[in-house]
Specification:
The complex is a heterodimer of chains A (390) and B (246).
Chain A (H helix, E strand, L loop, with lengths): L9 H11 L2 H7 L7 H8 L4 E3 L14 E3 L2 E3 L3 E3 L12 H12 L4 E2 L7 H7 L5 E5 L4 H13 L4 E5 L9 H6 L9 H9 L1 H8 L19 H11 L7 H10 L3 E6 L2 H9 L4 E4 L13 H12 L4 E4 L6 H9 L4 E4 L1 H33 L12 E4 L8
Parallel strand pairs in A: 4-11, 5-6, 6-7, 7-8, 8-9, 9-10, 10-11
Antiparallel strand pairs in A: 1-12, 2-3
Helix pairs in contact in A: 1-15, 4-15, 12-13, 14-15
Chain B lengths: L1 H5 L5 E4 L9 H6 L9 H9 L1 H8 L19 H11 L7 H10 L3 E6 L2 H9 L4 E4 L13 H12 L4 E5 L5 H9 L4 E3 L2 H32 L25
Parallel strand pairs in B: 1-2, 2-3, 3-4, 4-5
Helix pairs in contact in B: 7-8, 9-10
The chains are: A alpha/beta (390), B alpha/beta (246).
Chain lengths: 390, 246
């Protein structure tokens, strides 16, 4: 039986989470769009990047600390703005934010979180990052940004790759909703996962607390679903970056970049950082993995903005590969959700500790003492082809 | 080193890729120790593997005999484990090789080289041979395989030193590929362990015989009569990319 204490890998936490979280919520995170080709490639492509080992290097006094967006981090890692953390376990966002604060890395809150901006801000001292979609209801989007600013959020993450939703079959098959509908299948799940159910009875929030009751005309679940479908803004352009930045008056991280030209556009329109991301393989099925496109994007704009990445990082080795290929730091989403499902704040702490230890030992085996010095010279070969058109 | 010298060891193999231990999940899950702890699970294993257990009864060698009893503060297992952990030298550097070579007074083989710059440094610092090795994949996860990096290291230093390799050799065909790509010879580790587990000395002899026969026949099928003539001309193609940075 996998417990938190004997979990040695992120995979162990995933196994434990699968056993404890109702199927529809575990599946919601553990899925990509349509054939899930990109979802799978995010993880598997890391295997095509090989490390260069150097030996006989003095390895005393190793350093994993760095900075992201000008602020110190204990490891160049941030918690990704994943939706519905609070349905992996009751108050999931607060659990993850607390673990990230203790560990010394940024926590990102999704607009589609269960606990609201204010609820998370009340629970932690450290400023966190807030993610926002570009929405058609500009009044509500403005309200969200101002709420994030009022809550002391230290960066705004603007998601550019969700003007419409990639279909994830499993959510449709499971009848996924938040809060869940009380069907016989869901009642059966609750009986199998009593700890989850008991926790939820005392939860601060069980639905999208940033939206319900706050956006015009959204008062319950039915109106929320249609609101979401209508809200993502098909007319989104690069100009929204400047608009959001003026409102927020802080650094804006532009998320969902997979192309060199788009990276340049984001920089030209004022992005302070970009996130190379395919939305965890949940949007464009058939897009390249994040690790594949990272190097060409880092080369194009890495001297102008911080290039971050997300997608497929499941170990310290993966994190080091991303940094060696030019990322300033990386986000992890699913490892955090596994940690939450496996054991709330303690589970997230365990996930972060696993990655920290792997990063430390692997960096030493590369023959490096300071993570800020990790770079292209630590790569033996990268079998992932770059963009070359057809 | 003095013990090795006194026992007239012909060469010293100096491991460079273990200043810090790569985590191996299986050992942690199995609770690996030497000597083993008598847990219920281990007792069950012994019942399933009585031949192993009977032979172990007949020997007093159950732990690291090169270390236990030879270092003042490593008398029992708990302190031995701690001793091992603290002894791997984080400060290891190339000048240590010259010092060790002087102390040993015989040839020193430097093991754990995966990079051609490191191969050159090993030679500059007195190595008599190098072993291209990633420690059987037990250290840097994500390092290239030994067979992949072998040719470029041979190109760089093969004319100055004997380049050996280990990692993944399971047949005479594999051995011949390593030789053709420039290795002067290869080391086999797991093959030996499989032979030992299968039948002690006879098992190892069988393993070696299998590799010998495969090597002989395969060499013949390549159209070669002498293993010393094996070389790049015996390779049709090599799909393993060389180091290209990124």
């Amino acid at each position: 039986m996998t417990t938190l204490d004997n979990a040695l890998t992120i995979g162990d936490l995933k196994t434990r989470a699968r056993r404890r979280v109702p199927k529809q919520f575990f599946d919601y995170s553990e899925s990509g769009s349509w054939t899930e080709q990109t979802f799978r490639a995010n993880e598997s492509d890391f295997a095509d990047v090989l490390f260069r080992q150097r030996v006989a290097v003095d390895l005393r006094d190793r350093n994993l600390a760095s900075t992201m967006l000008g602020r110190p981090v204990s490891l160049p890692l941030a918690v990704a703005p994943a939706a519905i953390c609070g349905l992996q376990i009751a108050n999931g966002e607060i659990h993850a934010a607390r673990a990230a604060q203790k560990f010394g890395i940024p926590f990102s809150l999704s607009t589609m979180s269960i606990c609201s901006i204010e609820q998370v801000a009340d629970a932690v001292d450290a400023p966190f990052w807030f993610q926002v979609y570009v929405m058609r209801d500009k009044a509500f989007m403005k309200q969200l940004i101002l709420r994030a600013r009022a809550a002391g959020c230290s960066a705004l993450i603007l998601t550019m790759d969700l003007q419409l939703l990639g279909q994830r079959h499993v959510d449709i098959r499971n009848g996924m909703s938040a809060p869940p509908r009380i069907t016989p299948a869901f009642l059966f799940e609750l009986m199998r996962k009593p700890a989850w159910a008991l926790g939820m009875l005392g939860a601060t929030s069980r639905t999208f607390a940033n939206v319900v009751g706050k956006a015009t005309d959204v008062s319950d679940l039915t109106s929320l679903s249609s609101w979401i479908a209508e809200q993502f803004d098909l007319a989104l352009t690069w100009k929204e970056i400047g608009w959001a930045k003026d409102l927020f008056q802080g650094p804006v991280i532009v998320k969902g970049i997979l192309d060199v030209d788009d990276a340049r556009q984001a920089v030209a329109h004022g992005a302070d950082a970009i996130v190379v991301s395919n939305h965890g393989g949940r949007q464009l099925d058939g897009a390249p993995s994040s690790i594949r496109v990272l190097a060409e994007i880092a080369e194009a704009v890495g001297d102008k903005v911080e290039v971050l990445m997300d997608g497929g990082i499941r170990s310290g080795q993966d994190l080091l590969k991303a940094i060696a290929l030019g990322a300033r730091g990386a986000f992890i989403g699913r490892p955090i959700l596994y940690g939450l499902g496996a054991g709330g704040e303690a589970g997230v702490s365990r996930a972060l500790e696993i990655i920290r230890r792997e990063t430390d030992t692997t960096m030493a085996l590369l023959g490096e003492r300071d993570i800020r010095n990790v770079g292209p010279h630590n790569i033996y070969s990268n079998g992932l082809d770059r963009r070359r058109g057809h | 080193m003095s013990h090795a010298k006194a026992a007239r060891c012909g060469a010293l193999v100096l491991t460079l890729d273990l200043q810090i231990l790569g985590q191996r999940h299986k050992d942690l899950r199995n609770g690996l120790t030497a000597p083993p702890k008598f847990t219920p699970k281990f007792v069950a294993e012994m019942m399933l593997k009585p031949g192993w257990a009977m032979r172990m009864l007949g020997t007093k060698r159950h732990t690291f005999r090169n270390i236990a009893g030879h270092v003042s503060d490593a008398v029992n297992l708990a302190s031995l484990t701690e001793w091992t952990r603290t002894q791997f030298d984080l400060t290891l550097n190339w000048t240590d090789i010259a010092w060790i070579k002087k102390r040993f007074g015989g040839p020193v083989i430097v093991k754990g080289v995966l990079d051609k710059d490191d191969a050159q440094l090993a030679i500059d610092n007195g190595a008599d041979a190098i072993v291209v090795s990633n420690h059987g994949g037990r250290q840097l996860d994500g390092a290239p395989s030994s067979i992949r990096v072998l040719p470029e290291i041979v190109d760089a230093v093969g004319h100055k030193t004997e380049v050996l390799m280990d990692g993944g050799i399971r047949s005479g065909q594999d051995l011949l590929k390593a030789l053709a790509l420039g290795a002067k010879g290869a080391l086999v580790g797991r093959i030996m362990a499989f032979g030992l587990g299968a039948g002690g000395e006879a098992g190892v002899a069988r393993a070696l015989e299998i590799v010998r026969k495969e090597t002989d026949t395969t060499m013949a099928l390549m159209g070669e009569r002498d293993i010393r003539n094996i070389g790049l001309h015996n390779i049709y193609s090599n799909d393993l990319e060389r180091r290209q940075g990124y």
